[in-house]
Write the structure tokens for this entry.
Amino acid sequence: MQQSIWQGIKLVFRKELVAGLRFKAAWAAMLMFALTTLACVSMAMQGGMLEPRLLAALLWIILFFASLAGADRVFADEDTVGTLLALRIYGRSQAVLMGKMLYTFFLMVVLATFITPLFVLLLDVTVTVPGLLVGVLLLGCGGIAAAGTLVAALTTGANIHSSLFSILMLPVILPVFLPAISLSAASFGGGEGAISYLAGMGLYDLILVVGASLLFDYLWYED
């Protein structure tokens, strides 16, 4: 009997998680970039205070560029070692897409969970609405995961994979990035953020997931 799509998603997610924990290259690159950037910003500030909107922008810049160090490897590593063809033959396209997207989301949540408390501590940030910040981080990580998985599939096999990934990723994620900064600033006490931005972020995340699902079959079986 053919496995269900949910079983396939779980298998792909488990494979990605085991490979990520075994080799740790993406995890190490993301964490080291985020930690280095955060340490540099903290030392440059020397105890100075920044306005909430600038703090929010710094937080999302760190998370976004740290994600580029790991999210772009979601298909490239398999292409490099030659296992991508086997995954094409034996894996259902939608299970592969959703499993890798779920793993990237998990990776981003772990990164945000690790970096955000350090960011708050080192830059002496006052979080006035923690629930809002958590919601924004989850939706932002979801958007980065969906966009990153789709762009990684588009750029697999390119000679300038990393550069092309970065160029394509930014315009795709801007509709999530900008409201995330506004809402994060509101959670830091920088005025009231329009709560409709949360709904907009969720809607755009959904559009990214659906769009990726519709495009992925063509990308996966184009050969």
Observations:
- The two ends are 27 Å apart (CA to CA).
- DSSP finds nine helices and no strands in the chain.
- The mean pLDDT is 82.
- Residues 63 and 112 are 7 Å apart (CA to CA).
